[in-house]
Write a structure and sequence with these properties.
Keywords: Cell membrane, Membrane, Transmembrane, Transmembrane helix, Transport
Number of strands: 2
Oligomer: single chain
GO cellular component, one term: plasma membrane
Family: Belongs to the binding-protein-dependent transport system permease family.
InterPro entries: ABC_transporter_permease (IPR051393), MetI-like (IPR000515), MetI-like_sf (IPR035906)
Structural class: mainly alpha
Number of domains: 1
Subcellular location: Cell membrane
Length: about 325
């Protein structure tokens, strides 16, 4: 017997009833969540239109030969094969970038932690000191600071003038391949304000009674730092290390300005991002530059995954 024959006269069919219930549930959910979705709409447009969309397009372009003048032509994995086997500048850029990361991040975090511990002693006018020390992080990535840094470390710059007072004749730091990368490391360490603020917030969360109990037990300041401060601060150290390492991999402006966009002398300041820029906007090899960009994404992803996997052995949380 059909559904129409089983439905009593005047009764609402089951399908219509279920549809009405589903429609009513959808309307209630929409009325409850519509304001939130409307506020999220600018972010959603930016994410899909300016982040996810261009990322997917660049992934496609990484498998093509594209010079912005002609339509992309599919070349498969040729760009990646060339990067791995026939591009000496890729190796040079990776070496320079890894050198920069290995030196800049530990020195930057160490200096930021030392300053944060000094500020945590309850200095008078602490907000003023915080603002002063944070200012380099706001200005350090600008073109003006990079130009100023180039003048400081020039052969006749302020650094060599100060060394000359002690009878030391300094080299031209930015034009010597053995020293140029370390001027960029110094610039990165100078921008310690952001991790310093985070370290200071973490230090404020450590209970003072733990230090008092350790002092009563005769623990020295160094032992208190080693046994109390560092273990309780490891989540903050982990966060700062991951964030600052990612930022170091993405560094571009200082190397571009100080080297004049060439990465010189002798590729000693050829950051990976600078080489990517040269391939994209200097040689108009957009497909090849897209492949370089995705390799950088993979490198950062591998580092981040490795950091999270190993964090269980040295990062201590409340549990």
């Amino acid at each position: 017997m059909s559904n129409a024959m089983r439905t009593p006269a005047g009764a609402i069919p089951v399908e219509r009833y279920q549809g009405a219930v589903a429609e009513g549930r959808f309307r209630r959910l929409w009325n409850a969540n519509a304001p939130g979705y409307l506020f999220l709409l600018p972010w959603l447009i930016g994410f899909f239109g300016l982040t996810l969309g261009p990322a997917l397009i660049s992934l496609y372009l990484s498998f093509t030969d594209f010079d912005m003048l002609r339509s992309p032509s599919w070349v498969g994995t040729a760009n990646y094969v060339r990067i791995a086997t026939a591009d000496p500048k890729f190796s040079a850029a990776m070496h320079v970038t890894l050198t920069y990361v290995v030196f800049s991040v530990p020195f930057k975090l160490t200096f930021a932690l030392l300053v944060a511990m000094a500020l945590n002693r309850g200095l008078r006018g602490l907000p003023i000191y915080r603002a002063i020390f944070y200012l380099p992080s706001l200005l350090g990535g600008s073109v003006a600071i990079a130009v100023l840094w180039r003048q400081l470390f020039a052969s006749d710059g302020l650094v060599n003038a100060a060394l000359l007072h002690f009878g030391i004749e300094g080299p031209s730091w930015i034009s010597h391949p053995n020293y140029s990368i370390y001027t960029l490391v110094a610039l990165s360490v100078w921008q310690f304000g952001s991790p310093m603020i985070i370290f200071l917030a973490g230090l404020r969360q450590i209970p003072q009674d733990m230090y008092e109990a350790a002092s009563l037990d005769g623990a020295s300041k160094f032992r208190q730092f080693h046994k109390i401060t560092l273990p309780l601060l490891t989540p903050v150290i982990f966060f700062n290390a991951v964030v600052q390492t990612i930022e170091a991999f993405k560094a571009f402006t200082p190397a571009f300005i100080i080297s004049g966009g060439t990465g010189g002398p002798i590729n000693s300041t050829l950051f990976y991002t600078l080489y990517l820029y040269q391939e994209a906007f200097g040689n108009f090899r957009m497909g090849y530059a897209s492949a370089l960009a995705w390799i950088l994404v993979v490198i950062i992803a591998i580092f981040t995954a490795f950091s999270f996997l190993t964090s269980r052995y040295w990062v201590h949380y409340d549990d």
